[in-house]
Amino acid sequence: MRIGEGVEWAAHCLLMLDWMGEDRPVPTARLAAGFELPPPYLNKQLQALVKAGLVTSTAGARGGFRLARPLEKITMMDVVAAIEGPEEAFQCTEIRSRGVGADSPASALRRPCAVSTAMRKAELAWRRALAEQTLADVSAAVKRGAPEIEETVRAWYARN
Amino acid sequence: MRIGEGVEWAAHCLLMLDWMGEDRPVPTARLAAGFELPPPYLNKQLQALVKAGLVTSTAGARGGFRLARPLEKITMMDVVAAIEGPEEAFQCTEIRSRGVGADSPASALRRPCAVSTAMRKAELAWRRALAEQTLADVSAAVKRGAPEIEETVRAWYARN
DNA sequence: GTTACTATACTCGGATAAAGACTGTCCGAGTCCGTACGG
DNA sequence: CCGTACGGACTCGGACAGTCTTTATCCGAGTATAGTAAC
């Protein structure tokens, strides 16, 4: 049970796109430089964000990526779902119906698996907690500790 | 982000151990037969439960596994932690400190990463939901839909 | 009849391969910009 | 001077390897048991 690092990359990149405040689309190489990440692989993650509709891509010269909507309308759940996929982390394989379970009445097997239900309940709490936090909240938390973050970002990108 | 099927196996096996109600330890092969699972691999998972202190193992003839404590005192969190390990699912790699972050004041980097904090908050909700559910609760939920489960299990194992 | 010993068979435990997923990389299709040319 | 067509370069998008975790399997060390023999 491990969450891929792509989630971390995506969240930071989305914040960065907002802080940069550029009118032009930002190409992969530029974003990757900001975190010293391998550009081709970051591009792969950004494609997932495009498919999920979190960013829009522009092809051709002066192309790149742009936020599809303001940070207030992007939740952490959106980011995780975009990178990790929409399927549940716990997947019930119905082992209860094999072996001993073959002797159980069909009515019992028709009810959902209690173990699966318990796991899903916890996963729902996780998803809810993620959905309650927008990237705007995260951005605000960063600015609370480092109010000059936007200025720092823009100054860095002006030089690089 | 996928939870290994070992968690499902472990939860069902712990319930089964309780329902069987045998005085003698139950060997791997017997448990595996009840779910039609590969015995050697199930044994591996059971070893993890031993290390976590959820079951006790007895070597030698007539050996096997036994519940270390009643279901009331085993939470779903215990099961997940025993199989998947105690480390957090989301691990912050601090990419914020690379590239642009190198220009940030040290005081800003001393504060915890806001993205990491958001992810941890959700994961905490997940762990809390798991810890609130004991295996006794799960067992009760099963018996609500199939009150005869213990009898069915014992009858099956008497024949096999 | 009781007790101690020995051999046996059974069990767990960790070390050993195979498969799948994640991480990382590359090159081609498509698009936009800048330029040159013609009107 | 303005509009248009063309060349070029840049960007995204998907197809292609490497590495690590997870899944699956096996065999050896250790132990309780059952039988045996001695007392």
UniProtKB/TrEMBL annotation, chains A, B:
Database matches in InterPro entries: TR_Rrf2-type_CS, Tscrpt_reg_Rrf2, WH-like_DNA-bd_sf, WH_DNA-bd_sf
GO MF terms, alphabetically ordered: DNA-binding transcription factor activity
Entries under PANTHER family matching the protein: TRANSCRIPTIONAL REGULATOR-RELATED (PTHR33221:SF13), WINGED HELIX-TURN-HELIX TRANSCRIPTIONAL REGULATOR, RRF2 FAMILY (PTHR33221)
Superkingdom of source: Bacteria
SUPFAM superfamilies according to UniProt: Winged helix' DNA-binding domain (SSF46785)
Lineage per the UniProt record: Bacteria, Bacillati, Actinomycetota, Actinomycetes, Streptosporangiales
Record Gene3D superfamilies: Winged helix-like DNA-binding domain superfamily/Winged helix DNA-binding domain (1.10.10.10)
Species: Actinomadura montaniterrae
GO CC terms in record: cytosol
PROSITE patterns registered for this protein in UniProt: HTH_RRF2_1, HTH_RRF2_2
Name of protein: Rrf2 family transcriptional regulator
Pfam families: Rrf2
